[in-house]
Design brief:
Blueprint lengths: L2 H26 L4 H21 L4 H27 L5 H29 L1
Helix pairs in contact: 1-2, 1-4, 2-3, 3-4
């Protein structure tokens, strides 16, 4: 399995975790506004990766991967904020935050490699 397939699978699994976390929080902690932001950015990562994989050109691929990278960064921000404000406990956020960081690293690598190959 190549890096692009791996990142696509990891981003899908991550989106599933984000949706389940959203459901848990809405049912148990009654926080909606910040979690809607997390839900939007966290599920957008995989959608943009999927679009990239079906891109019409290398530049289209790079553009969509860059968007996925930005969404992963935003998702990391929301997870950190929700933890810092104690809406999520450290225990509740640690594993999903680690997964987000892993996606960020993978996407950064893909974007850098693709950018250097286009030059």
């Amino acid at each position: 399995m190549d890096n692009q397939s791996i990142v696509a699978e990891k981003s899908f699994s991550f989106a599933v975790r984000i949706v389940k976390l959203y459901q848990y929080i809405c049912n148990n902690k009654k926080e909606y506004v910040l979690f809607k932001q997390l839900l939007r950015s966290g599920t957008s990562i995989g959608a943009n990766i999927q679009e990239a994989l079906n891109g019409q050109s290398k530049r289209d691929f790079l553009s969509k991967m860059n968007i996925a990278l930005k969404e992963a960064g935003e998702t990391q921000y929301w997870l950190r904020l929700l933890t810092a404000t104690e809406i999520l406990t450290e225990k509740e956020s640690r594993s999903i935050l680690d997964d987000c960081t892993e996606l960020l690293k993978m996407l950064t690598s893909i974007v850098k490699t693709t950018s250097s190959n286009l030059q």
